[in-house]
Design goal:
- It is a single chain.
- This protein has helices at about 1-20, 25-40, 160-165, 215, 225-230, 350-355, 380-385, 390-395, 405-415, 420-425, 430-440, and strands at about 45-50, 50-55, 75, 85, 100, 110, 120-125, 145-150, 155, 180-185, 230-235, 240, 260-265, 270, 285, 295, 310, 335, 360-365.
- It is an alpha/beta fold and about 450 residues long.
- Strands 11-12-13-15-17-18-19 form a seven-stranded mixed beta sheet. It has a six-stranded mixed beta sheet with strand order 1-2-3-5-7-8, with no helix packed on it.
- It is elongated and about 80 Å long.
- Bound molecules: 2-acetamido-2-deoxy-beta-D-glucopyranose (2 copies).
- The site of one 2-acetamido-2-deoxy-beta-D-glucopyranose has 4 residues, from loops.
């Protein structure tokens, strides 16, 4: 009896399955749709300015799954567990422009892995386990402009020769920057971009005892605070470097030149040195919130012509030196909250600068000292100050004037009221320090 029942059930199943197979397009279409949903369940598809993003970051993925939408432009697979990129993995994503594979465990890329990616401009492979790769892998991507390869343990030998030569083609400005050799010893820490490609395929005199002149210069100590190994870089929607909360004591070296947003918040940076950001010319947002900043060199922001937003909140700033802000032509937002601003003569520069840059909105400028002004908006303090017999006060309180200079300083400024000086010079109440220079000469 039981056997019969079992047989009947089996028969039913077979008939049902055959039916389903015959079921034609309608049914098959429907079942595929269901598959799409299941595979894509954890990933997010979104659209920004007509560009389709497919976000599958941090999903513990070990491979690219079937059934993802094929018309996407940006595929985000960062922070997964992919180990091998097999031939034709991406060949059905014909419109793909960027592919983010950073922070996976990729140790091998098959020669045809990127087949079909003829529109791809950006490929992110940083923070993986690659030791070798060849130029051949990149051939299917004629539009490739940005290729990130840093933070992989590159083995710089003959197998890497074609890739290194490709990286070094002068027009490939954003291909393979900051990638460094991990092996062999004599090349350790050297940038692929700057390596002498001729040496890769010539036998290395490892067993020879005669000191090799090339090797003598080599022990290039790898800078430990290299931005690209400490921080994470992102390319879409804009090039961004995230160095949040990395225990940094200084601004890291080697910030990629095309970075637009730089987040250095929640570190331990105490001071900004001259020309700290001078090579990052496209920077629009600089976040230094939550550091221990006490001083900012007058030339620290040099070259930041396009900076629109500067967050200096939650630091230990008491005032700005004359000139600190002069390079920031296009600043729109300045966050200054949570700093122990001292309301004395030193703070005037900041107020005058803000007065002459009315397009800049600022927040958090509140006196913390001296006691009598604590909690006052700094502007109110300056107003009170100016209302109170300005000349006497200014001359008496000018800080930073060395005692020997005081008389000469008084002579030079005696006739000029601070307000007049500002009106005369426009947005640069800058002459102050210059006068001190003259004084020192006399
Ligand atoms: C700067 O970073 C802090 C802390 O990470 C964050 O709260 C703040 O919103 C950031 N500021 C800007 C302008 O992005
Ligand atoms: C200020 O910075 C400290 C240290 O980075 C952080 O712990 C704190 O949350 C920050 N406070 C605010 C108000 O952002």
């Amino acid at each position: 009896m039981r056997l019969l029942c079992g047989l009947l059930l089996l028969l039913c199943l077979v008939i049902w399955a055959a039916d389903a197979r015959k079921g034609g397009k309608g049914l098959r279409g429907r079942s595929r749709k269901r598959t799409v949903k299941r595979f894509a369940a954890d990933c997010k598809e979104s659209s920004v300015n007509g560009e389709k993003f497919f976000d599958c970051q941090e999903r513990q993925l070990t491979a690219v799954l079937l059934g993802w939408p094929e018309d996407i432009h940006h595929l985000q697979l960062a922070r997964n567990k992919i180990q091998v990129l097999r031939d034709n993995t991406f060949s059905h994503f014909r419109n793909l422009r960027s592919l983010d594979l950073q922070q996976n465990e990729i140790s091998r890329i098959e020669e045809g892995a990127f087949n079909g990616l003829s529109s791809l401009t950006t490929l992110l492979l940083q923070h993986n386990r690659l030791q070798v790769a060849s130029e051949g892998t990149l051939i299917p991507m004629p539009q490739l402009k940005y290729l990130r390869l840093h933070d992989n343990p590159w083995r710089c030998d003959c197998q890497l020769d074609t890739l290194v030569r490709f990286i070094q083609v002068p027009s490939n400005r954003n291909i393979g920057n900051y990638a460094r050799c991990a092996e062999p010893r004599e090349f350790e820490g050297r940038q692929l971009k700057k390596l002498d490609a001729e040496l890769l395929c010539s036998p290395q005199p490892e067993n020879v005892l005669i000191p090799h002149p090339e090797n003598q210069i080599l022990p290039a100590p790898q800078k430990k605070s290299d931005a690209t190994s400490l921080c994470h870089t992102y390319v879409h929607p804009v090039p961004r470097l995230d160095c949040r909360n990395r225990g940094l004591k200084t601004v890291p070296a080697d910030i990629p030149l095309d970075i637009v947003r730089l987040d250095l918040s929640r570190n331990n940076i105490k001071q900004l040195r001259p020309k700290e950001f001078v090579s990052v010319k496209d920077l629009k947002l600089l976040n230094l919130s939550g550091n221990s900043l006490e001083s900012i060199d007058t030339a620290a922001f040099m070259g930041l012509l396009y900076l629109g937003e500067l967050d200096l909140s939650n630091n230990s700033l008491k005032f700005f030196q004359y000139g600190v802000l002069e390079d920031l032509y296009f600043l729109k937002k300045l966050s200054l909250g949570n700093n122990p601003w001292i309301c004395d003569y030193n703070i005037h520069y900041l107020i005058y600068w803000l007065k002459h840059h009315r397009g800049v909105s600022h927040t958090g400028l509140v006196c913390s000292e001296p006691e009598e002004f604590r909690g006052w908006p700094v502007e109110n303090y300056v107003k009170t100050y100016n209302a109170d017999c300005p000349k006497d006060k200014q001359l008496g309180q000018s800080p930073g004037t060395d005692p020997a200079g005081i008389t000469a300083h008084q002579e030079l400024t005696a006739q000029i009221d601070e307000e007049e000086l500002v009106l005369e010079l426009g947005p640069r109440p800058y002459r102050g320090p210059k006068k001190y220079e003259i004084i020192r000469l006399t």
